[in-house]
Write a structure and sequence with these properties.
The protein is built from 14 helices and 21 strands. It is α/β, with parallel strands linked by helices. The chain has an eight-stranded parallel sheet with strand order 9-8-7-3-2-1-13-12, covered by helices on one side. A six-stranded antiparallel sheet has the order 14-15-16-21-18-19. A hairpin with a 2-residue loop joins strand 10 (about 285) and strand 11. Helix 1 (about 30-45) packs parallel to helix 2, helix 4 (about 170-190) packs parallel to helix 5 (about 230-245) and helix 9 (about 335-350) runs parallel beside helix 13 (about 450-465). The chain binds alpha-D-glucopyranose and calcium ion (CA). The site of alpha-D-glucopyranose (GLC) has 9 residues, from loops.
Length: about 550
């Protein structure tokens, strides 16, 4: 591995789901013109890299994850020239850019699929997974995993939505196509890829029926980390190596043991992986199963990945993305908006790994509550709603959707308090959260103690210290049900992070090894109550923290 690729270890990523980021040409849809105008803003957060969700032409059955052309830009978002302009400007500002690589499936409107449907003698015939008889698998987003195609007279596999047929990665021609796509974007100058559901691309021969009773989970062993995955990944790695491109895999349901196979050793094919354990602390895929939320589950998952990758591989750090509701509405409190929004920044920005901030997270955007299922756009939200037990009434179905919908994180970015939140000059493609007059970028720019400015402060602090970048992680007070506390240390430099997930004051018990030591307060989300820079002796018992308080202390 070359050193020059290691830039990702000190990077802070910002994730842009372009459709809802900023509308630059006044048609109600976010685009690359709007992105261009906001690049300075993104950079001002301390961000040094951008991950774009899919920008390619797509019928939007799964909002860009159903790609109909890998080597172009969706006309809603601009064109290749505009993308290049954004890319060059991002580079000028000191930000790398990575693209979303979605190769488990294409759109059914992709030329390859349109050809493949035509019959077994078509050159694209084996680009997809066709069977005369379906097996009993379920798809992640939409009902059964098989759909009958009239023209071909066979069923095709779709692990996700119906309009997302799975590519047949066992076909060498398909892998060559993938490499062409990699080269296309790398030649243009992109710095790497976020690789969508990458651990699903190699399926077990024969596609055996699920034996267990739990749809999706019980059949996953037939396609998660499948038999040829590391061979295929090695082929793609070779291309990326030529360009020193960074590769970050999305690894749904991955375990540490299997993640390490992608991240280390001879089969190393990814620089980092998005693990899911901490995201399933309260939910499974797009459904909420572990309610009420218990901090213990979240702490355990975060610590597991911190400990088990230590010295071996590098973590991704994230709490939000386009597949989950807003974190403030999940793990924080909308009533304690500023406090819990800032606290949630400290929860993960000081962990070991590379942080990802999802657009709007930095101002504490919250879940939207739409009044009818027709107003939702996301395929899984709609399907979940209609799959609920029929005896559930509309209101209780909607409550479940309010909790779980991916659309909650896909509402237009709240830039200011003007009409449509400054996202667009016309009614946007999807509902603006009505709280935009209170929660927006412009307002938080002006407030020194805002969530936005707290993100900036966290990133500055993180970058100022080798211990916060490379130091060892240790969890403290692990039995405490409402506080997450951890330290990072390197060569005697120790930082202690304390985060309260509770809406009232709480005692924090000082861990034994820190009692009586000197502490300096480096960061607090209660600037009116505590003085940054203040020095004190760590009490021998504990001290009280404020509701949703976050503290970063330097211990010596
Ligand atoms: C990933 C994406 C998600 C998409 C799915 C299928 O999980 O993040 O948005 O629906 O893959 O491509
Ligand atoms: Ca537009």
């Amino acid at each position: 591995m070359t050193e020059s690729r290691d830039w990702y270890k000190t990077a802070v990523f910002y994730q842009i789901w372009v459709r809802s980021f900023c509308d630059g040409n006044g048609d109600g849809i976010g685009d690359l013109y709007g992105v261009y105008d906001r690049l300075e803003y993104v950079r001002s957060l301390g961000v040094t890299a951008i991950w774009f969700n899919p920008l390619y032409p797509s019928p939007n059955a799964d909002y860009g994850y159903d790609i109909s052309d890998y080597c172009d830009i969706h006309p809603d978002y601009g064109d290749l020239a505009q993308f290049k302009k954004v890319l060059d400007r991002a580079h000028e500002l000191g930000m790398k850019v990575i693209m979303d690589l979605v190769i488990n499936h294409t759109s059914d409107e992709h030329k390859w699929f349109q050809e493949s449907r035509k019959g077994k003698d078509n050159p694209y015939s084996d680009y997809y997974i066709w069977r005369d008889k379906p097996n009993n698998w379920s798809s992640v987003l939409e009902g059964k995993a098989w759909e009958y195609d009239e023209l071909r007279g066979q069923y095709y596999l779709h692990l996700f939505a119906r309009k997302q047929p799975d590519l047949n990665m066992d076909n060498p021609a398909v892998r060559e196509e993938v490499k062409k796509v990699l080269r296309f974007w790398l030649d243009m100058g992109v710095d790497g890829f976020r690789e969508d559901v990458i651990n699903f691309i190699s399926k077990k021969e024969g596609l055996p029926n699920r034996i267990g009773v739990i749809p999706i989970l019980d059949e996953m062993k037939y396609y998660k980390d499948g038999p040829h995955i590391h061979e295929y990944m090695a082929e793609f790695r070779e291309v990326c190596n030529e360009y020193n491109a960074v590769q970050i895999g999305e690894g749904p349901m991955t375990t540490v043991v299997s993640a390490l196979k992608y991240l280390t050793g001879r089969s190393k094919s990814l620089d980092m992986m998005f693990s899911f354990d901490h995201m399933t602390a309260d939910c499974l895929f797009t459904e909420y199963v572990h309610l009420p939320f218990k901090l213990a589950r979240l702490k355990k998952a975060l610590s597991k990945w911190q400990y088990q990758l230590e010295g071996k591989a590098w973590n991704t750090l994230y709490l939000e993305n386009h597949d989950h509701p807003r974190v403030l509405s999940r793990y924080g409190s909308e009533r304690h908006h500023r406090e819990s929004g800032t606290m949630l920044a400290a929860v993960y920005l000081f962990l070991k790994g590379t942080p990802f901030i999802y657009q709007g997270q930095e101002i504490g955007m919250t879940n939207i509550r739409l009044m009818s299922i027709e107003q939702y756009k996301d395929v899984s939200s709609k399907n979940n709603y209609y799959s609920y037990h029929l005896k559930d009434d509309e209101q209780s179905r909607l409550r479940r959707i309010h909790l779980s919908s991916r659309d909650s994180s896909r509402t237009p970015m709240q830039w200011d308090d003007s009409d449509y939140a400054g996202f667009s000059t016309v009614p946007p493609w999807f509902g603006v959260n009505p709280n935009y007059r209170a929660i927006n970028v412009k307002k938080q720019e002006a407030e020194s103690d805002s969530i936005l400015n707290f993100y900036r402060a966290c990133i500055r602090l993180r970058n100022s210290s080798p211990a916060l970048l490379y130091g060892e992680y240790r969890e403290h007070n692990s039995k405490e049900p409402n506080i997450y506390s951890y330290s990072r240390s390197l060569d005697g430099e120790v930082y202690l992070i304390i985060c309260s997930f509770f809406m009232e004051r709480l005692p924090y018990i000082v861990p034994k090894q820190f009692r009586g030591m000197k502490a300096r307060l480096l960061l607090t989300n209660y600037p009116a109550k505590r003085e940054t820079g203040m020095e004190f002796e760590m009490p021998h018992t504990g001290f009280r923290v404020y509701p949703y308080e976050a503290l970063v202390l330097r211990i010596s």
